[in-house]
Amino acid sequence: MSNEVDLEMSRIQQWGISTLMDIATVRNKLIKDNPDLHVRLDSLISPKSTFFLDTMSEQIELQEKV
């Protein structure tokens, strides 16, 4: 039973990371088109979420440069 729970938790984490990457990608495109939107978007989410999105945004930008 424990293995099944671990497997399900792993799937949920992968889904969550994938979803955050999608959100970060859209956020990057919106901010690129309208820099003023950055503050307004970030005011809608928690500082912890903003940190994760900023980190993921940096990763996405690095991947796009390669």
Question: What do you see in this structure?
Answer:
The structure is a single chain. By secondary structure, the protein is an all-alpha fold. It has one domain (2-65). The protein is 86% helix and 0% strand. It is built from three helices and no strands. Helix 1 crosses helix 3. The protein is elongated, with a radius of gyration of 15 Å. The N and C termini lie far apart (42 Å). The mean pLDDT is 80.
What's the quick description here?
The protein is mostly helical.
Shape: elongated
Catalogue the unreliable spans: none
SSE order, one letter for each helix or strand: HHH
Number of strands: 0
User: How many whole angstroms does the radius of gyration measure?
Assistant: 15 Å
Strand composition percent: under 5%
SS content category: mainly alpha
Biggest pleated-sheet summary:
none
User: Helical element count?
Assistant: 3
The rounded distance between the terminal residues' Cα atoms is 42 Å
* Average pLDDT figure: 80
Features:
66 residues, mainly alpha, 3 helices, 0% strand, elongated
Topology summary:
Layout: H1 2-33, H2 37-42, H3 47-65
Helix pairs in contact: 1-3
